[in-house]
Amino acid sequence: MPEGIKFGVYIPEGLANDLEECMRELGIRNKSKLIQEALRSFIADNKWKFKGKAVGAIGVIYDHEVGEVDAELTDIQHNYLDIIVAALHLHLSERKCALYILVNGDSSKVRELTKEIMKVKGVELVKPLLLSTTR
User: Fold this and answer.
1) Which helix (H) or strand (E) holds 34?
2) How far, in Å, CA of 110 to CA of 54, rounded?
3) Counting beta carbons within 10 angstroms of the beta carbon of residue 130, is it exposed (0 to 12), middle (13 to 18) or buried (19 or more)?
4) 3-state secondary structure string, 52-100?
5) Cα–Cα distance measured from residue 106 to residue 1, given in angstroms and rounded to the nearest whole number
6) Is the pTM of this model over 0.90?
7) Level-2 CATH architecture, domain 50-132
8) Structural domain boundaries in the chain
9) What is the phi/psi pair of residue 66, to 5°?
10) Which pLDDT tens digit goes with each residue over 68-123?
């Protein structure tokens, strides 16, 4: 068995009850394995924010009637072709659009891209859906 560290964790009763119910419904019996998987997921979801490589999507909701928002978003994407794998544009309504930009690359460049998108007038929501690829 690999070496590890054993430690105790306080969990409020409501959270513990929810955990027990989820484990029962999903047929999971080993809390240690469950906690290990949850910690791996937490690390993968957040490590890209401070180092390494990231892979995933940046979701953007914007009003295409505001200024030159479409052109600005396209210009920004052209500046990050080294990390952008693909982009998907969805029409949500007469004015609203969604843009999903798939990325794979250095997390600092992904953060830069995300910040640039947030500055564009007409952009209403930017949601990174990224994982760290660095262990």
Assistant:
1) helix 31-46
2) 7
3) buried
4) CEEEEEEEEEEECCCCCHHHHHHHHHHCCCCCEEEEEEEECCCCEEEEE
5) 34
6) no
7) 2-Layer Sandwich (3.30)
8) 13-48, 50-132
9) -90, 115
10) 999 999 999 999 999 999 999 999 999 999 999 999 999 999 999 999 999 999 99
